[in-house]
Amino acid sequence: MISFTLLQHIVLVQGILLAVSLGLFFAHGLWLAWYKRRYQLLLERAQAIIVTVGLGGTALPPTEYEWLCALPVRLQIRLFTHLAPSLSGAKKQQLTELARALGLLARAATRCRSQWWWRRLQGARLFTLLGGGEHVVPVLFLDRAALVRAQAAEWAVEHPTPAVINALLLLLGDAESLCRFAAQDALFRLGPLVAEPLIHLLGVYHRVGHLWPRRMTAGIETALEVAVGLADARFFSPALTLCHSATPDVRALAATLLGALGGREGVEVLTALLDDDVPEVRTAAARALGKLRYRPAAAALATLLRDRAWDVRREVGLALRSLGPPGLLFLHRSLQDADRFAADMARHVLDLPDMAGPKAPV
Amino acid sequence: MTVPWSDIAALILVRLEWAILMYFVLVNSVYAVLLLGAGWEMLWYARQVPGEGRWHLLSSRVAPRISILVPAYNEAVTIGESVRALLALCYHDLEIVVVNDGSQDTTLAVLQEQFDLVPLHPIYQRRIDTELMRGLYRSHSHPNLLIIDKEHGGKADALNIGLQLATGELVCVVDADTLIETDALLRLVRPFLMRRSVLAVGGIVRVVNGAVVRGGQVVLPRAPRRALAGFQVVEYLRGFLCGRLGWNLLGGNLIISGAFGLFRRQALIAVQGYARDTVGEDMELVFRLRRRGYETQGPHQVIYVPDSVAWTEAPELLRVLSRQRSRWHCGLSDTLWRHRRVLLNPRYGAMGLVGYPYFFFVEFLGPMVEAMGLVGVVAGLLLGALDVPFALLFFLGAYGYDLVFTACILLFEEVSLHRYEGMRDRLWLLLWMLLEYFGYRQLTVLWRLCGFCKFWRGRTDWGVMKRRGFATAASTPPR
Asked: What is the pTM of this model?
C-alpha cells in the first residue's frame, strides 16, 4: 500500500504546483493589463506620427525619428504590420522606406537567414507586408519548411520577375498542398503576366510529360486550373494538344480550358471528347460545349443523355438547355426515350425555372 | 474455522480500492500526456500564426467553397438572427444551407418573410436516403442562401439532405443556435489548405452564458455567474483545450462537435452521411469517416484548431443538463459498440491503438469506476476497513491532481487565447474550478451512468433542450 508519508509528499507537491500555476494565471492577467496601459498610448502616438508626418511626403523630424527608433522592436513590427495592409502605391513605398530607415527590413533579412523555420517565416512575412527582400526571399522558395515556401509564394505577387514566376510554377508541383495552393493563388493574382511561362510549361509537359513523376503531373493539373481561370487566348494551342494527354484529369481540364476559349478547332476536339472512356472527361466536354453554345453538337450531346454516369447526364441536359431551341427539341424528344435515365434527366432539365440571376438551379 | 463476513468484505474492498487506484494512476497519466501534447500543439500553432495574412484568403480565387449546413426544427424565434449572423461571416465563397426539418412553428414563414425566397427546382443525385423534400428555395436578397423544406426526420436526416444539395467542397455543420466568430471559418479552413490528408476540422466550442452578445456576435466574453454554467465553462475548456487539442499530436481525435465542425463534403457523402439511428451522430460520423480513411488508405486526419471559436448556450437547469449528459454518454456507448472491431486493431493505426482504447477505458468506463470507488469508500468507512485519515489524504491527492490539471488549462487559455479579460472573470473561473469537485462531478457520473442504462435498454430519444436565448443569457455590459 502507498505509505502515508508518500501521499503527504504528493499532496505537498500538488499544492506547490497549484500555487505556481494559479500565480502565473493571475500574474499574466496583471501583466497584460499593465502592458496594454503602457504601450497602447505609445502605439497610438507612433501611428499618428507615421500617418501624419512619415507618410505625408516630408522627412521625419530628427526628434520624432529618434523616438520611433527608441520603441521596442516588437512594437515597431506591430505598428508597421498593422499599417501596411491598408496602404498601397506611393504611401506603401514611403512606409517601406521608413521601415528600412528604422532597420526593420535589415532585421527581416536576418530572420530570413535564421536556422529556425519560424524566424524565417516571420522574416518572409515582414517582407510580404512591407515590401523589399528581393535578395533574400527568392532563396526561400527552396526552403525546407512548407510554411516558409508558401509565404515566399505570397511575397512573389508584388515581385513578379521572370525568375520568381518560374519559381512559382515549380511550386505548383510541390509535395505540400499548402505550397501548391499558395503558388496557384499567387499566379492568379499575377494574371496575364504568367501566361507565357505557363504556355512554355504546358508545352514542355506535352513533349516530355510522360517521363515526369506523378507529383509533377499533379503540378500540371494545377497549372491548367490557373490557365482555365486566366482564359488567355494564347492557351489555345497547348489546350488542344493536352486534350490528347494520357492522363484523364489533364484531358478534362484541357476540355474545360477549351470551353473557356472556343474556336472551330476547339469545338471539334470537344465533340470528339464526348466519346472519351472517362466520365469526368465527357462531363467536362459536355459542359464546355454547352458554355460555347455550339449547336451542331446537339445531336451528339443528346446521345449522351443515356450515359451511365449521372454527372455526365446532368451536364449534357444542362448543355442542351443552354443551346436554345435545338437543344430543347432534343430534350423534348428524349422524354419519350426508351432509356428511363435519359427521359428522367430530360424531364428534370425541362422543369427547371428560368436560369437568370438568383433563380439559377442548384 | 470460519472467517467473519466483515473481514471478507473488507478484503474485497481493499482489493477493489487497489484496482481503482491503479485505474486512477493510469487515467491521470493519460491526462498528463494529453496536457503535454496540447501544450506542444499550442506552441507550434503560436509559431505559425503571428503575422499570417489570413485576410489574403478573402480575395483568393483558389480557396475552397464552404457550405454551412444549419438544421432547424421549430426555431422560428431565433432563425432570422442566426442566419443573418451566418451571412455576415468573413469568407468570400460561402453558401448557407438552412434545412427546415418539418418545423411545426413558423420557421419557414419567418425565412420567407425575412429573406425573400424564390422556389427552385433542384437536380441532385440522391445518394443518401432521407425524408421527402417538400420544397427548395433560394433567397432573392442573398443568393448564397438556400432553404430546404422537408418532412421531419431528425437532425441527422436534415444534415444528410443538406449535404446532397450543398455545392461547397467543404461543409460546415453548425447548430441553429450556435454563434460563430466572424473570422472562425478563415481559421478553420487552414488545415485543409495545408494537408490533403485532413478529413475534418473542429473548432473550439465555448459557453456563451454570461457573455455580452450583440447582433449575433459575442462582443464581450465573460465568465458566468451561475454555478451550473460556470462549471460547464471549466469543463468545456478542459475538454477542448486539453482533450481534443492534445489528441491532434497523438492522432486519436474521434469527436467533432455537432455544434461546429468543417468536413470534406465528398467524404461525408461517401460514408452515407450521418447515421439516423443514434443519438451520438457526430461522434459516430467521425468514427465512420476515419475508419473508411484507413480502410481505403485515404485521408483520415481529424484536427482541432484552438482559435476558431463558436459559442453555444449551456443548459442552466439540472433537468436539461442531465438529459444532455445522459444522451452524450448513450451516444458514446452506442458508437463504441458499433465500432468495437476498431479496438486495438492495428489496421486502424492511432485510432485503433490509442484513440479507441482511450474512449473505451477512460470515457466509457470512467463513470462506472468512479461510482464504484465512491461506493467503495462509503462502504469501507462504514465497515471500518478504511483508515479515515489516509482516505481523506487520498481524496485530497485526487482532488489536488484535478485542480493542478485544470489550473494548467486555465493558464493555457490565459497565455495563448486570452478570451476572458477582466480580473473578476478570472476569479469566477477560479471559484468554479474549486467548487466543481463538490457535487457537480458526482452528478455528472450519475448522469453518465443513466446514459449507459439508456443505451442498454436501447432508448435513443433526444429529449428537449430548453434554451434561455442569447438575449436573456447575455448580461448588460459593465459600466
From this structure: 0.87
